[in-house]
Amino acid sequence: MKIKLYCRRALMTLLFICALYTTISSISNITLADMKVWAERVQQETNHPSENSLKKSNLEQKTMNEQTYRPKTLEEAIDFDQYETATVLATGYTAGIESTGKTSEHPQYGITFSGVKVKRDLYSTIAADPDIFPIGTILFIPNYGYGVVADIGSAIKGNSIDLYYDTVDDVYSQWGKQELDVYIVEYGDGTLTEEALKALNEAEALQVFRQQYIEQ
């Protein structure tokens, strides 16, 4: 009796499977032969990945690596070793009376020798001896950023430079006085305009780093 019951259940299950396959086949137009070919391809791809699959895998890995490593500072993003270096004594200054002798009411307050306004930005205005670094010279100063020579000063002679900061507190807390090697990115021609300085600061490729200097 039990054997007949088991046989009946097996027959019903087989009939159900056949009916299910017939339904799926009629809807999707997929046959057993198609399923066999698909299964063989899956097995083959598992054991021997195709060239396209390998390329896709390598591309995905490369993308993941690029997303994982992104330079956080200009020093990491740019190879400054390609530039000439110079050892300088760098101090900090402001536009205020303590550095320039001018008050905020003075008509030339905050105006550099080149005619541009002092600025702490991706490319900041700095002062230097024009016989060493002509106006318009671009330096990269480690731990400060890019500096564009826009100003001169009676106390700035030889390999001395003055780095602009917005406040006296910034000068003392962020810089003070340091002797270090700077990178000479480009020598100036003796001139600098607001338009040229603006173009440097708005260079699209470096905008990701700009806030690091504006918000210091």
TrEMBL record:
Pfam families hit by this protein: 3D
A GO MF label: hydrolase activity, hydrolyzing O-glycosyl compounds
Domain of life: Bacteria
One Gene Ontology cellular component: outer membrane
Entry keyword set: Signal
Record keyword Signal present: yes
All residue ranges annotated as the 3D domain in the record: 124-185
Protein name (record): 3D domain-containing protein
Species the sequence originates in: Oceanobacillus piezotolerans
